[in-house]
Amino acid sequence: MPEKVLLIDDEEEFLSALSERMEIRGMNVTTASNADAAVTALDNNEFDAIILDLQMPDMNGIEMLKVIKKSHPEMQVILLTGKATLEAGIEAMKLGAMDFMEKPADIQSLTEKIKKAQAKKMLLVEKQTADKVDEILKSKGW
Predict the structure, then answer these.
(1) CA distance 36 to 91
(2) Where is the PTM 4-aspartylphosphate found along the chain (predicted)?
(3) Which end of the chain has fewer CB atoms < 10 Å from its terminal CB, N or C?
């Protein structure tokens, strides 16, 4: 099953080049060049992972990560940045980011992280489903 990825970055050329490289590797990629487009894509689709630029003009990656985790806590987010700082990396991980990578990201390493994100999300969704089934069984007294 191909990984479904939302790629968020304000640099159109970077979006185009990276999404093409990911699609060549069999991924189903949706792109968003600003925060509004990203939120719309997230609300209307299911994704296994989000690749998120840390530096965007309308909303930085940390703020976007907060928005994503508030509405989709199971979502696996990998932050990308050309200007990495230790503080930003630590803050991102505390907020629930799966990983933090510097641009230009090695495509093989990024692909492996996306596959891990898909597997982790599947485990979280399975656990949520099992918890709901247990809750229903307990409430019905079967």
Answers:
(1) 23
(2) 53
(3) C
Helix or strand holding residue 30 (H, E): strand 28-32
The CATH superfamily of 4-140 is: Response regulator (3.40.50.2300)
Tokens of 4: 């479904």
What pTM was estimated for this model as a whole? 0.88
- 72-88: b (≥16 Cβ within 10 Å) or e: beebbbbbbbeebeeeb
pLDDT band at 83 (very low <50, low <70, confident <90, very high): confident
Residue 53, classed as helix, strand or coil, is strand
**What pLDDT does 142 receive?**
65
Q: Are 7 and 29 in contact (CB under 8 A)?
A: yes
Where exactly are the structural domains of the chain?
Answer: 4-140
For residue 118, give the amino acid letter: Q
Task: Find out whether 74 and 47 touch, Cβ atoms under 8 Å.
Answer: no
Report the greatest alpha carbon distance in the chain.
57
Residue written as tokens 């792109």?
31
**Residue 87 one-letter amino acid:** E
